[in-house]
């Protein structure tokens, strides 16, 4: 069972790389951002709540996010493993993920930190916003999301280092080369 946490700032390429890696290894790709956006589109109560946080670049509260993830995990069948994209984003979420996987006799195999310089992140996100129409890909919200990333999410780097799971990935440059580097690291840990 291969459980990969793909980590990085907004715009670091987590979604793109997750799709490529999930396909190569036959993993389920869970993007918590995609799960929330699907709820917003469906107009559910959960979607309405989520939107209030997403539009302001804030994180959805841990308890709610953990319940959502737990439901998604329960719905997986015959999984060869999961690539977690956008979860965990806080220490509390990382602790809960560890617990949830332990209860299933599993663990996080590896955490991949896609490292991209801040200026490049902003440029990528502003460009993405022009195409994707994502309401949170405007410069003001992008800056807020990056602040939240530094304050709440970055402490996970040390947390995963302490847990012996951390791997640094150079996240700028050629997309295919980045996937190759990721796969090399996975092969060593598998
Ligand atoms: P993403 O698509 O991963 O950039 O997520 C978009 C937005 O969804 C984030 O800015 C948060 O508001 C929310 N979100 C996604 N994943 C999480 C999470 N694990 N914890 C809290 N909020 C999240």
Order of the strands making up the biggest sheet: 2-3-1-4-5
Number of helices: 9
Largest sheet, in brief, is:
5 strands, parallel
Note poorly predicted spans.
none
> Helical percent range?
55-70%
User: How much is the average pLDDT?
Assistant: 96
* Fourth-tier CATH superfamily name: P-loop containing nucleotide triphosphate hydrolases
Along the chain, the helix and strand elements come as: EHEHHHEHEHHHEH
Which secondary-structure class do the elements indicate?
alpha/beta
Q: Class in CATH?
A: Alpha Beta
What gross morphology would you assign?
globular
Number of domains: 1
**Ions and ligands:** adenosine monophosphate
Termini separation comes to 9 Å
Number of strands: 5
Q: What CATH architecture would you give?
A: 3-Layer(aba) Sandwich
Using the coordinates shown, work out and report the CATH topology.
Answer: Rossmann fold
Our Rg estimate from Cα atoms comes to 16 Å
Strand content: 5-15%
